[in-house]
Design brief:
Two copies of one chain form a homodimer.
Chain A lengths: L3 E6 L1 H8 L3 E9 L2 E12 L2 E6 L4 H5 L9 E11 L4 E13 L5 H7 L11 E5 L3 E9 L1
Antiparallel strand pairs in A: 1-8, 2-3, 2-5, 3-4, 4-7, 5-6, 6-7, 6-8
Amino acid sequence: MADRVIEELDRDESLRLISPGGIGRIAYTSRFGPTVLPVNYTFYEGAILFRTAENGPLDQDLRTGIEGADYEVAFEIDDIDMGGEMGWSVLIQGPAHHVTGPDREEAYRACVEPWAPGSRELLVRIIPSHITGRRINHS
Amino acid sequence: MADRVIEELDRDESLRLISPGGIGRIAYTSRFGPTVLPVNYTFYEGAILFRTAENGPLDQDLRTGIEGADYEVAFEIDDIDMGGEMGWSVLIQGPAHHVTGPDREEAYRACVEPWAPGSRELLVRIIPSHITGRRINHS
């Protein structure tokens, strides 16, 4: 498609695009192999925050079995214009952990409420260690 | 959110939803940890097909180093109504492989052209071994 260009986005532009929050997709290696699931997220204090169910699949999969240890995940956010056949995507890679302790309350209040019904009181934070982004546009 | 319900989708309904093709997100374990990227896909003869660049990151990551061997991936498709705060998602897990040999030409013709510019002549097929789906709706 000669009429399109692909542009690499730097860290600042990637963070600007994802900072309003919305829907992102978390990818990780579960007991059943690679897995990716959409979640409602908030970008707060430089990190991705979302809520999930205690003892749900995402909880069990993201526990390392070692108290306080992190789990490496990917988090992808995009905005795609199907009609215009263009869009951007940002990929965050980094450790995920359950938010506990004194900073939980403030982070919990900042975090968007999940659309999915049922109790989702487990707060997960992903700290970006690597951020990449790209945009496909018409030239 | 007491006004919402979550519904598990069976295999037939999940396949019906993804069969028109469009944008999906492939997740796999790369050299740099879990990774997830959007691609234009076609659903053809019971499998996901997409094109990527030879020797691009997705090519290199999806090579096992063993000729003819498969690579376990996840592929996620969704349709989310941000305003209505509802939507569905389907998760496919299974082996990915490069399509070569006598069936490549027909599969290549069936496969959607990627939006991303540049030569993307590598044809990848994901054969679903496990399909799950869910829909969040207002009750």
